[in-house]
Amino acid sequence: MTIECPRCGTVYRRPARAELGADATYRCARCRHVFDVARDEPAVTEDEETGHEPEFTFEEEDDAGVEPEAAPVKPEAPPTARGTSPARFAVRSILLVTLIYAVASVYLYTHPEATREALRGVPVIGTRLTETRLHPSTIQLSDVHGAYQRVQGDRLVFVISGAAVNNSPVPVRSIQVEGRITGAQEQRQVVFCGAAPRDVQDLSLREIALLQTLEPPKDWALAPGEQTNFLVVFAAPPTDLREFTAEVVAVQAPSRRV
Description:
The chain is α+β, with helices and mostly antiparallel strands. 17% of the residues lie in helices and 29% in strands. It has three domains: 66 residues, no CATH class; 29 residues, no CATH class; 119 residues, Immunoglobulin-like, CATH 2.60.40. It has four helices and eleven strands, in the order ββββαααβββββαββ. The longest helix is centred in the middle third of the chain and has 25 residues. About 14% of the residues have low confidence.
């Protein structure tokens, strides 16, 4: 049997299961019109002109006359908010960091005492951050001389020794002296004044290397006009050593106690 849409005249083949109910509701696939069909409509078995069964399309409502629910549609992702692209976010972040750095730099420059007090509260390294560095020229080296010496194990080393005089108007607590020897290759060694032994002849190379890394005690200080000895040892000096020098590379004043 066939059914015809009363609005557009499209002909459909009625499905066999529609015979079970007389009040079935149908929807036209072409014009989307919903209509009811009586059971006693004539059946069409062949096309009257061609003698062949016509081709039909069919769309049926459910038995209650309600359209089948559509398949769920995945919601589209919301468009990216304007002005929040990765490139703009990176530019804004850089500008913000630069602004914060500029403001902090101005504050640190205009409030040195407050900055020093704040840095002094940093654990472990706070004292070092607040130490006042003096110009190396405030310390004068005197009686500088160099010579080869024999140490334990019959090893030949080169020693630069002398005295460091504090010519600054304030006490200093840390003086670093750099010794340099020149031959086929140049060698440099930095030591702290006030921590080196006066003689190394009875020491091994291992003990010498350890002593040259020591710093003076925390309560050590060199008052204005006073002097202290230094000793720089080169464990493997070149055989064609031509010259040696020594100079002060760093000076620190004691940090002010709170």
